[in-house]
Amino acid sequence: xxxxxxxxxVRECAATACSFNTKGxxxxxxxVASTGDAASCATFVESSLQGGIAEVTGTVxxxxxxxxxxxxxxxxxxxxxxxxxxxxxxDCLTYQPA
Length: 98
Ligand code: SF4
Prior knowledge:
Pfam families: DUF1540 (PF07561). It is a single chain. This protein is mainly β. It has one domain (about 1-98). The protein has no helices and eight strands. Iron/sulfur cluster binds near residues 65, 78, 92 and 94.
């Protein structure tokens, strides 16, 4: 069994408009959704609140992109992922369709 600390980290996130992004992602577990062709970060939110936990590096909680080579049972097995603007304001840029 894995703990949150062992889950796939969000190594870098360039979606600076997101409330969870303060020099990187601090959402305990993001969800990656499948919006059209994009592997969009569904946790992206613009708010006046500062989101997440400052001491925590963001990780991938769930991922709906089952066709990605890194996806096993809707969870991410990549060593780390990068998030940034793509087809949406915040996409998983590590997404690799099988
Ligand atoms: S690398 Fe693939 S499995 Fe991991 S979060 Fe991105 S799209 Fe999902």
